[in-house]
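thread: overnight batch results

M.L. [08:02]
morning all. the overnight job finished for the chain we discussed friday. pasting input first so we're all looking at the same thing
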Amino acid sequence: MQKVELRAVESGGYGLRTVFQSAGGKTRLIEGVLAPGGEIGPHTHPSGEDCGLVLSGVLTYWVSNSETISVLPGEVVFGWQQVIHGYRNDSSEPVHLLIFSTPGNNGLEYPGDGDAMVRHLPGAERKLTSAEGERQVCSEYSFFSFVTVGEAYADSGESLVVFVDSGEKRAYVFDREPVRLLPTRDKRLLRYAAQS
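M.L. [08:03]
and the structure it wrote out:
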């Protein structure tokens, strides 16, 4: 298990940095900080996805070239393959993100909303909150859910599995290894699984 501390905001960092690359090279965890007024404009990925967990701040998330939704700390947004998405900070505070990107080189395009290759999904289906109980969201590349871990938690570890404690700004990464968590108290964690 690898523990990843997500502290870019505290260190005054801005921009993007890879904090973990899977052993098989297919998945990266990228810590990002968007300064006030910062933006990664609406785009798509022709051969992959990037999904983001807001760690702090309020994110304005593009769900088309003209429509956005607000995303609060602890919420996840989905930038599936061929679905328009983007990140913007309209607030006066930095937005701190953990981005899940898979597979390795997922490409980048800037199509119009009417482009035949664009898949359209309602904004409400584009995010997951911890308050949604045991809802699971998956794509052809990844799987997201929130889990409450109150006692020993184990999993087979056949792929990449990441647990994120957004309050503590810490990720626990299990890359092709058995998953074992031993919490000292109940914790609500984001569980992410993808190809290694």
